[in-house]
Design a protein that fits this description.
Elements lengths: L1 H33 L3 H4 L1 H39 L7 H39 L2 H7 L4 H40 L3 H11 L2 H28 L5 H30 L3
Helix pairs in contact: 3-4, 3-6, 4-6, 4-7, 4-8, 4-9, 6-8, 8-9
Length: about 260
């Protein structure tokens, strides 16, 4: 009986903690949105974060996109070759990247590269009492530190996803046309006729924006609530990768079901 009571108590504590964490997460999101005026008054702060987040993630995004395009070109050719539809390889590569792989893989890499960097930076600022010093000097740390980083991540994410898809399509073209020998005109014409700007490209952009909001906000939340110790910062960066990746995959399922169900 005592074991059952303790189990129910632990379950209740877990549920209560989850509800509290969700509330704190939502409150931080609302606070950042309410104090986003600094992004218009001082756009240099946002541009610095776009450079920090986007430029430093560009190499891993481009290289990953190239190899994903290589794999799509090979696997797509082997599959389409069974049905004599090798000319549709360009369409397959483009749809796979713009609809799904571009936003999702970019968001996962973004969480591992930029997300952990944001969490560690804010966690170290908290451990070094820099955030407390800002409050003493009447500087709002959410407005000055979190808001520019949030909008920097939201803006950088769609750009990185577009670079990933573009480089991936080039990789698929290299494998399909240069290595395998598919007609280049058929590769591009099938892609041009089959990819719809609104249903495919813009939906992929919308996905990447939502993923950028989710991953950046999770990174900022974990850094903001990290314990001011080396161990606390390291655990926060780990939670950023895990929570960010799970959020991306879960949101991808929901968005795909809403966008492409018809």
């Amino acid at each position: 009986m005592n074991t059952l009571v303790r189990g129910i108590g632990r379950l209740g504590g877990l549920v209560r903690g989850s509800i509290y964490g969700l509330g704190a997460f939502t409150r931080l999101f609302a606070t950042i949105l309410a104090r986003s005026g600094i992004a218009l008054k001082r756009p240099g702060l946002v541009s610095q974060q776009i450079h920090f987040i986007g430029n430093y993630s560009l190499l891993i995004i481009a290289v990953s996109g190239l190899f994903v395009g290589f794999v799509l070109g090979l696997q797509g050719y082997y599959t389409l070759n069974r049905y004599g539809s090798e000319e549709a390889l360009g369409l397959l590569v483009a749809l796979s990247l713009t609809r799904e792989l571009g936003p999702v893989v970019t968001a996962l890499l973004f969480a591992g590269r930029a997300g952990t960097s944001l969490t560690a930076e804010i966690g170290l600022m908290k451990a070094g009492e820099q955030l407390a010093a800002m409050e003493v000097m009447a500087v709002d740390p959410i407005r000055r530190v979190l808001t520019p980083r949030f909008w920097g991540g939201v803006i950088a994410m769609p750009v990185l996803a577009a670079v990933f898809s573009m480089v991936g399509i080039i990789g698929g073209w290299v494998v399909g046309v240069l290595l395998i020998g598919i007609d280049s005109g058929a590769f591009w014409s099938q892609m041009q006729s089959g990819v719809d700007v609104f249903n495919d490209v813009l939906n992929g952009v919308l996905k990447s924006v939502i993923f950028g909001i989710a991953v950046t906000l999770i990174a900022l939340y974990e850094g903001w609530n990290a314990k001011p110790t080396p161990e606390g910062v390291s655990r926060a960066t780990t939670r950023t990768v895990v929570s960010g990746s799970l959020a991306v995959l879960g949101l991808d399922f929901l968005l795909t079901a809403l966008m492409f169900s018809n």
